[in-house]
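Posted in: Protein Modeling Q&A

I'm a second-year student putting together a small comparison for a lab meeting, and my supervisor asked me to include a predicted structure for Thiosulfate sulfurtransferase (Rhodanese)-like domain containing 3. I've never done this before, so apologies if this is the wrong subforum. The sequence is pasted below exactly as I got it from our records. If anyone can share the structure token output, I'd also love a short note on what stands out.
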Amino acid sequence: MWGCRGLSCAARVLLGVPRAAGSWSSRSRPLQPGLRTVNVIFRNLDTSAECSLSYKELKGLLKSQTTLIDVREKWEIGQFGKIPGSINIPLGEVVEALQMNPKDFKEQYNQDMPAKSDHLVFSCMAGVRSKKALDIAMSLGFSRVQHYAGGLEEWAKYEPPERKQ
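Accepted answer (user: helix_wrangler)
Welcome! Here is the predicted structure, written out as tokens:
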């Protein structure tokens, strides 16, 4: 089913795609210098249940080769802390970051660029932004993506967040 639901609306907002009367088109968005064009048809992806993780599931995955990406803003990480082992890529940077060349990604985020087949888990404060990031990653061809729906709010109920010293 096509339409302006789920990822479509989130992607339109994130990428600045205006909505025409009753529909939208990637052609109606002017290209911005320096940004790569994402030639993806955004669909209403059903990513609710099978892609959401509980605290216990996330805790188990963190022992394996999983990349945990916290999509909150930098000031939120400073103020509230983060899940240990996560890297911070704010939601507004996810599209560009997941398309960077590996050298630039390593310089910017101090971690190897994830491959499209790597297991990615997105987190945020309460699961809303991480779901949007999951949809974006799926639209860019990442096949093993999930999100921690409880976010840092739930994590903090079980164990303290990591804080910068």
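A couple of things worth pointing out for your meeting: Residues 91 and 141 are 17 Å apart (CA to CA). The beta strands are 19-20, 23-24, 52-53, 66-70, 87-88, 119-123, 144-148.
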